[in-house]
Amino acid sequence: QGLFVTFSKVVVGLNRLEVIKTFIVLLFLAQRGDVTLWQKENADEIYITLVSGSKDEKPPAGVV
After folding, report:
1. Which among 33, 29, 32, 28 has a CA at the least distance from the CA of 51?
2. Distance CA 25, CA 19 (A)
3. Inter-residue contact 48 to 1 (CB < 8 Å)
4. Among 1, 12, 42, 50, whose CB has the most other CB atoms within 10 angstroms?
5. pTM attached to this predicted model
6. Separation in Å, CA 13 to CA 10, 29, 31
7. What is the pLDDT of residues 48-63, one digit of tens each?
8. In the predicted structure, residue 34 carries a pLDDT above the cut 60
9. How many Cα neighbours within 13 Å face the side chain of 61?
C-alpha cells in the first residue's frame, strides 16, 4: 500500500475551520486520483496515501 499518513497527524494544531477545509481539499484530491483515502471499519482514523504516478511525485510539505 505504500507510505501513508493519518489525517489526525496532518491537522494537528489546526482550528476546527482549518480541519474542515483540509478535509474538503483531501476529498477533491481523492476525486482527482492524486490521493487515496481509507478508513478501517469501526475506526475513527482516516489514512491518506499519495497515489504513485500522480503529477507531483512529492507529497505536499508537512504531510509526511
Report:
1. 33
2. 10
3. no
4. 50
5. 0.73
6. 9, 22, 26
7. 999 876 555 555 555 5
8. yes
9. 0
